Amino acid sequence: MGYKSDIEIAQESVMEPIVKVAERIGLSEDDLITYGKYKAKVDLNYLNTDKPDGKLILVTAINPTPAGEGKTTTSIGLVDALNKIGKKATGALREPSMGPVFGVKGGAAGGGYAQVVPMEDINLHFTGDFHAITAANNLLAAMIDNHIQQGNELNIDPRKITWKRCLDMNDRQLRSVIDGLGGRINGVPREDSFDITVASEVMAAFCLAAGHADLKERLSKLIIGYTYGKPSEHKPVTAGDLHAEGAMTALLKDALYPNIVQTLEHNPVFIHGGPFANIAHGCNSVTATKMALKSADYAVTEAGFGADLGAEKFMDIKCRMTGLKPNAIVIVATVRALKYNGGVPKAQLNEENIDAVKAGIPNLTRHISNIKNVFHVPCVVAVNAFPTDTARELELVRKTCEEMGVNVIVSEVWAKGGEGGKDLAKEVVRLCDMDNSGFTYSYELEGSIEEKMNRIVRSVYGGRKAVFTAAAHKQAEELEKNGYGNLPICVAKTQYSFTDDPKVLGAPDDFDVTVRNVRLCAGAGFVVVLTGDINTMPGLPKVPAAVNIDVDENGKITGLF
Fold first, then answer.
1. Is the pLDDT of residue 561 over 80?
2. Positions marked catalytic
3. 116 vs 267: CA distance, rounded Å
């Protein structure tokens, strides 16, 4: 049998009606808002059951490389594997953004025989959540400019508008624009810009909201800009000042219900929300995670990119805000990715290279150390199997990790589905039975923004210190003066390195992280600290994945990964 693409495997699967899948976790048709036969939204009343929560398993990874790690594939395969060994398990994952789907990454619904379906729907529009978030974001933008056009009662300075429009697409052309041209009837000309939808603060607030009332309260706090006057006289203007929060919440009313789909093995998975971890907090919605916990004995969720970003924010932001506490953490790696971290070009990763594994494995061991010694959560390393992995390479990884008191399990969920993850599932169950009462955050909320950022740089990244530019230092001081100093930190940083330089691989020491901008996300409830050259509107690569995506005369999609 020849090689099959992810989309071919997904399209050949026979799905069960989502109503039947949902029945297995106690959901009736009255709990569901169906979107066709194979996907649905779940009413928030499901959270009101007095059923005890299951165990929470977080899947994270080493720093991503072009070699691929397979975090989502592992998460989905682990859900199937746990059910294979007789445990009741569900998943909670992020929704894919269409920007990366058409850009570098392609589809993002797992891979091989560890996928969620309907794969095409999940990757393209799904139930419209991201469109609703885009609309809510842009409604606020329209109301800002209309307010200025209609007399500017709030005294908004157009030069100090911080709210950006957004679009769920990679489009570098929109990073910096001038709008409102064409005369007074067309608005007030000003410089403007776009974020990708997953970088919008509406997305972050949406994913952290505990219901419609909480969402509306968060939206009312969104800061859109500042008033005219001397720097000392600038006052923040909020969405609440514009009375926009009610209409924005109305646009998001149905979107706030988590989506439920199924794996290839017909196990339920909640997919909801999707902020990027390099520019936002990188976790699916709080409501989806809580539903997964209510629905099963084991809930598997993931955090974006490497553990230095996604897992750190999962624990320091999401867990801190909700009281969630992971029982076990899976760190995903591949031998190929370790060799890449060891300096081997992508074209040579299929060749055995023990020295390269030795050189690259410190990236993995630093993540292990952070999970064990900073956050104090039991963990396991899942090595995604590739045919080119050699016994000697795998043994080196196993021996190195076991010296740190962490087991290594080779995962074959991509090739075998749940059957290929049974050993991983058994180890996760063992870890979940351990005591996780020692769980801690990487920093306390008390202290200055700079002190908290320094704590992250030293304890999580392994660096020396955070260096704030003069502008960033002033921004941090201003936020502290206005009472926002005790909020969690959300670091915007390259995902490819522990440092702020994407070219520095492995586990470097003795480096500084430069902070160039500090901004408040009052609706989300955290302070964003921007480092390096992070951009909130990605561009397309030279050959976008979009050029390989097509639809035949029967409506069948091809080329979607």
1. no
2. 71, 73, 94, 105, 277, 305, 386, 414
3. 9
